[in-house]
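Sequence, please.
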């Protein structure tokens, strides 16, 4: 404990991880995730993530230490422990300063913090009524609601970037994004409006697509967008190396409980030092108000902070794998693409994106004969697979374009994490084949409810 305390006090950790001399075995992986329901083919890591037993044990110990003597824990361990976690995250994402990293509950909290600042800018006259926020059409649902709650009510306009799906190239996304920025500056016959904030996903949730985020941030700089916020809820542990210096956004958030093996719920919010101004605050005001967002976020009242304190233990876990987190990401990507190709070959369909625009999730076309005609059908099919086949996988409905007949309208978003086995995907393949051979359609589910 002494060496960890020293690292906490100095706000520094070794940049070269201490690798376990004995790499993790398949049996050890199974043991780490033995708390998962063995009867479920869990193809939905992207929704809630996963946490290994060794990390849960460490979290439990932090929780008990707090309950044993809360005052001692608060005054002597909590602040240093959170600083230790922030320092690890800072190095993980190549931020310049540890003060640029705040730990919050989840990406939704981070989004609200950024949008709160934009709201005050409208109210205080720094932004003009009619100035806009640009976001992707496939932005996460709660992010869209947050923009409505904060920006629209404050007098800002919201412009959605329409995105194609299936998508065949990054150029399609870049072209639509440029067009949306032009619209933001000239809509309503005025050329005086400004795009004050661009909200860009790094990996969209549904449908899942890796967005060319560095290119879009560069376009924002060229077009004079005030600030760029990257909602990267899935990125850490899911997609290629996340580097704040390379991406160049003003704000960037990612959950650590989705793909980085932390328990729920913990995320970080990066705020570039040049924009980390005094008017960026946590939503919950505590006695730390005014001491900078990172410090404000480290205490928002009496609550369980254990999920934020286990980041060092998570680093120990990921470094038991060959290549650490980068190795895990590559293997997950390669495996999910392989399983996706296996499924579309079995069903005579196609993937929703090129391989390089998938991360650790891929969109798999479902047989058209299943009759997925709307969002309700997609949800009913997902429930049916869970209840009758023991398969957990989210579904997406794509409305047919004009003139399309017999096209793929339903897609499954499959994930791959270290605990997944090939049998999970075979189970999914066989369940769909069984439904198809039995002349099943989603209309049957609608009439039975």
């Amino acid at each position: 404990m002494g060496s960890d305390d020293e690292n906490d006090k100095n706000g520094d950790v070794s940049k070269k991880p201490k690798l376990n001399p004995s790499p993790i075995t398949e049996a050890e992986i199974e043991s780490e995730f033995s708390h998962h329901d063995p009867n479920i083919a869990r193809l939905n890591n992207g929704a809630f993530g996963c946490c290994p037993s060794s990390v849960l044990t460490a979290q439990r110990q932090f929780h008990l230490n707090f309950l044993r003597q809360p005052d001692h824990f608060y005054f002597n361990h909590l602040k240093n422990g959170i600083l230790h976690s922030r320092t690890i995250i800072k190095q993980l994402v190549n931020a310049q300063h540890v003060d640029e990293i705040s730990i919050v509950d989840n990406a939704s909290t981070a989004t609200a913090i950024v949008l709160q600042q934009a709201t005050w800018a409208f109210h205080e006259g720094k932004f003009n009524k009619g100035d806009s926020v640009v976001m992707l059409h496939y932005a996460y649902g709660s992010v869209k609601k947050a923009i409505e709650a904060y920006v629209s009510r404050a007098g800002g306009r919201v412009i959605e970037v329409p995105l194609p799906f299936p998508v065949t190239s990054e150029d399609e996304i870049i072209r639509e994004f440029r067009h949306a920025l032009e619209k933001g500056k000239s809509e309503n016959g005025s050329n005086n409006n400004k795009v004050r904030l661009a909200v860009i996903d790094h990996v969209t949730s549904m449908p899942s697509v890796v967005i060319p985020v560095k290119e879009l941030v560069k376009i924002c700089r060229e077009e004079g967008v005030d600030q760029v916020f990257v909602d990267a809820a899935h990125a850490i542990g899911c997609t290629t190396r996340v580097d704040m210096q390379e991406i160049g956004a003003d704000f960037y958030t990612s959950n650590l409980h989705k793909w980085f093996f932390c328990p729920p719920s913990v995320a970080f919010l990066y705020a570039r030092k040049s924009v980390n101004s005094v008017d960026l605050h946590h939503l919950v005001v505590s006695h730390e108000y005014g001491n900078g967002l990172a410090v404000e976020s480290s205490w928002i009242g009496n609550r369980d902070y254990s999920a934020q304190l286990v980041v060092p233990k998570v680093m120990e876990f990921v470094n038991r794998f060959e290549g650490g987190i980068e190795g895990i990401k590559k293997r997950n990507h390669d495996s999910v693409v392989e399983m996706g190709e296996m499924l579309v070959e079995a069903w005579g369909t196609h993937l929703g994106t090129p391989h390089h625009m998938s991360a650790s999730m891929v969109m798999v076309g479902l047989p058209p004969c299943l009759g997925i005609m709307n969002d309700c059908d997609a949800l009913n099919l997902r429930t049916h697979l869970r209840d009758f086949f023991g398969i957990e996988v989210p579904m997406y409905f794509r409305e047919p374009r004009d003139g399309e007949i017999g096209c793929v309208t339903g897609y499954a978003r499959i994930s791959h994490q270290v605990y997944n086995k090939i049998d999970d995907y075979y189970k999914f393949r066989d369940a769909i084949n069984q439904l198809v051979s039995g002349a099943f359609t989603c209309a049957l589910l609608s009439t039975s409810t």
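The chain has a mean pLDDT of 90.
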